[in-house]
Write a structure and sequence with these properties.
51% of the residues lie in helices and 18% in strands. With 136 residues, the chain is an alpha+beta fold. It has a 3-stranded antiparallel sheet, with helices on both faces. The relative contact order is 0.20.
Amino acid sequence: MITLRRRVLATITGAAALLALVPAAAAGHSASEQTDNEGPALAHLRAYVEAFNAGDEASMRAFFRDHLAASALEDMPVGKRLARHPATKRQLKSLAIEKVVGDLPFHGSLLVKAGNGMLLLLAGAVEKASPNKLLS
């Protein structure tokens, strides 16, 4: 079981490391700078990173309320999402945006580095109609 878990983590980390090789220029801008023409998905993902790093329940509650589509909240209500957050925060510690991997009209992705050293891909799809909230 431990060997399988290590292989899975190595695969995830390896895949994220490959994504790190994608130049930020391919996405049109660096990870640290938010542009005016950035798609709504990236704006929501950046807001998630900010709320996650704030470290308090109120910030996460506000993020879920303000950035998730009604259908996403029906699938998993805010309370369940908040219940999962402390364990995730303990494991990952913090998130820092490394690269913009994708920025399409209704989908975006960011490569982030967690405070524990893991590289993760945050991806989000948004509603096609305004206000373009996250679907999951």
